[in-house]
Amino acid sequence: MPHVLIVDDDPGTREALATIIAEDGLTTVTAGDLREARIQLVRQTPDVIFTDLKLPDGSGVELFEDLDPQSGVEVIVITGHATVESAVNALKMGATDYLVKPINMQRVKAILSRLPRAGDLKAEIGNLRGELRRMGRFGLMLGNSPAMQEVYDQISRVAPTAASVMLVGESGTGKEVAAQTVHQLSLRRKHAFLAVNCGAISPNLIESEMFGHERGSFTGADRQHKGYFERANGGTLFLDEITEMPVELQVKLLRVLETGMFMRVGTTREIETDVRLIAATNRDPEQAVLEGKLRLDLYHRLNVFPIGLPPLRERGKDVDLLAQAFLDELNERHSTKKHFPQAVKDMLMSYPWPGNVRELKNYVQRAHIMSGAESDSTATVPLQISLSKPAAGTAVTIPFGTSLAEADRQLILATLEQCGGVKTRAAEILGISLKTLYNRLVEYGNDASRLAEGEADDESRALGDANA
Fold first, then answer.
1. Which residue has the higher pLDDT, 103 or 80?
2. Residue 277's CB: how many other CB atoms inside 10 A?
3. Count of alpha carbons within 13 Å of 26, Cβ hemisphere only?
4. How is residue 405 annotated by DSSP?
5. Which SMART domains does this UniProt record tie to the protein (predicted)?
6. DSSP letters along 311-327, please?
7. Which residues contact 174 (CB under 8 A, 6 or more apart)?
8. Domain segments of the chain: what residues?
9. Taking Cα atoms as reference points, which of 237, 238, 210, 260 lies closest to residue 97?
10. Across all residues in the chain, what is the average pLDDT?
11. What pLDDT, on the 0 to 100 scale, is given for residue 460?
C-alpha cells in the first residue's frame, strides 16, 4: 500500500491532508519540522511526501538531500502565495507538483489519482530508451543524433513532473510533436492534450477561445462555449507561438498559472482547472521580453524547464532516417514500393533544410507524387528541392584544371538559376551572406544580370515562394 509523509508545522493542515489521503487508501505519517521528517524517513521510505516549504527549522526542499535519487519518491511542495517562486525552484530540483495555501483538497485528490502510475511511467521511459537504441524512435519523435539524444534525456526528466515546459526552436523543428511526447510520458497522459496556435486566432476571439464564454456575452455568442483551459482540465495545454499572444491576455494567463482559477467571458463566476502548460516559440524568448512581446513574469513561470529543439541541419544522419520514415509511411498508405537512389540520399544530406523537418516531409510527399504510379521495387523518387522553378539540371560539372574563381562563379550562378533568381534563397543554400552574394554578382556582371531582375523583385519572389 502506498505510504505518504506529510510535513507541515500547522496541525490543521497536517490533519486535513492526512484525512483526505487516508480516504484514498494510502497510509500516512506526519511531521511538524525537518527533524521529525528525517526520523520518519529513516523508519520507512515513503512513496509520496507532502512538505511545506517554510518549516521552523529550515526549508522543505532540504529533504531532497535525504532522498536516494533512484528511490522514485514523489515530492509535492506546499507554499503560500508570497513564495510561489520558491515552489517553481523546487520543481526545478525535482518536485512533482506544488500546492498553494489555502490548500484545495480537490487538487490534492487530482494529484493522488496520478501518483500510482508513476512507477509504470518510469518503466515506459526505460522501454522507450530501448526502442531508441534499436530503431531511432523515442515515442512520437524520430532521430538518434547526439542533439536529439540530449532532447530525449531532457524530456525523460521533465515529463513525469508538473513543471511547465518552454520549447524553443525554429519553425518546422517539431515542437508540437515534442509537446505531445512530454504529455504521453507524463502522469496526465490519460487526459486531454490540446494544442492552440496563439498566432492563428483573432485577437478579438483569443480570450473566448482560451477561457470560454457565456451565452449572450458578446455579439454572436448564441451559446455557452467551453475554452481550452476548461476542456484540457486534468491534461496538458500546448500554447504554440506564445509570443504572439496579446500582452493583456498574458496577465490573465499568469493568474491561471498562479491560482488554477479562471472566468469565462461574460461571467464573474470562477472555474477551477488543473492544467499543465507547455509553451513554444520560434523566437528568442528573452529577446521577445525585451521587445515587449512576452511579459517577464509570465516568461519566468513558463520557462521552468526550457528545451531547445535543434534545426535539421544540425542533426546529421537523422535527415536520411526521417526521409525514409516519411517515404515508408507514404508507401504503406498508397501500396507502393518507391525508394531513394543513393544520389538523391546524398543530395538530401547536403541540403541545409531551412524549413527543417516540415520542409523535408513536404519534399518527400512531393517527390512521391512526381515519381509516377510505378509500384515495383525499382521505382525511384526524383529530386526537386528548389521551391521556385526548377533548372534544367541539378548538378554543375566543373572540368579538372578549372580555377577556384571560375568554379566559384559557376556554382553561384547555377545555384541562383536553380532558385529562380531569388538571391536570399541562393545565399542560404550556398551558406554565404547576402552581402557576399551581391558582391560576387557585381563581379560577374552580365552573366548575373540575366538571372536576377533586381533587388526589389527578390523579396516579392521570396514571399511568393514561401506562400506557395
1. 103
2. 21
3. 24
4. H
5. AAA, REC
6. PGGGSTTHHHHHHHHHH
7. 141, 309, 356, 357
8. 3-103, 120-308, 313-370, 404-467
9. 260
10. 80
11. 41
Kindly state the cell numbers that stand for 80.
503560500
Which pLDDT score is estimated for 79? 84
The pTM for the full model equals: 0.61
Helical pair 404-418 and 423-430, crossing angle rounded to 10 deg:
130
Element containing residue 76 per DSSP (H, E):
strand 74-79
pLDDT tens across 436-451, in order? 787 788 777 755 555 5
pLDDT for the residue numbered 163 = 86
CATH hierarchy code of domain 313-370: 1.10.8.60
For residues 294 and 244, the answer to whether their CB atoms sit within 8 Å is no
What is the Cα–Cα distance from 276 to 229, expressed in whole angstroms? 10
The arithmetic mean of pLDDT across residues 408-433, rounded, is 78
What Rg, from alpha-carbon coordinates, does the chain have? 28
User: Grid coordinates standing for 33?
Assistant: 519540522
- pLDDT above 50 (res 292): yes
241 is written with which cell numbers? 507561438
Say if residue 137's pLDDT is above 70: yes
* Coil/strand/helix, residue 339: strand
Shared fold status for 3-103 and 120-308: yes
- 165 membership: H or E segment, kind and range: strand 165-168
pLDDT-based confidence at residue 385 (cuts at 50, 70, 90): very low
Integer CA distances (angstroms), 435 to 27, 91, 406, 432, in order: 70, 47, 20, 8
Class of domain 404-467: mainly alpha
Catalogue the E-assigned strands of 218-319: 236-240, 261-263, 270-272, 276-281, 305-308
User: What's the start-to-end Cα distance of the chain, in Å?
Assistant: 60
Q: 120-308 belongs to which CATH class?
A: alpha beta
Determine how many CB atoms are found less than 10 A away from the CB of residue 415. 20
Would you identify the CATH topology of the domain 3-103? Answer: Rossmann fold (3.40.50)
| CA distances (Å), origin 457, targets 24, 341, 424, 439, 461 | 69, 36, 11, 18, 6
Judged by DSSP in three states, 213 sits in strand
pLDDT of 162:
82
Q: How far apart are CA 258 and CA 15, in angstroms?
A: 25
Percent of the chain with pLDDT strictly greater than 90: 25
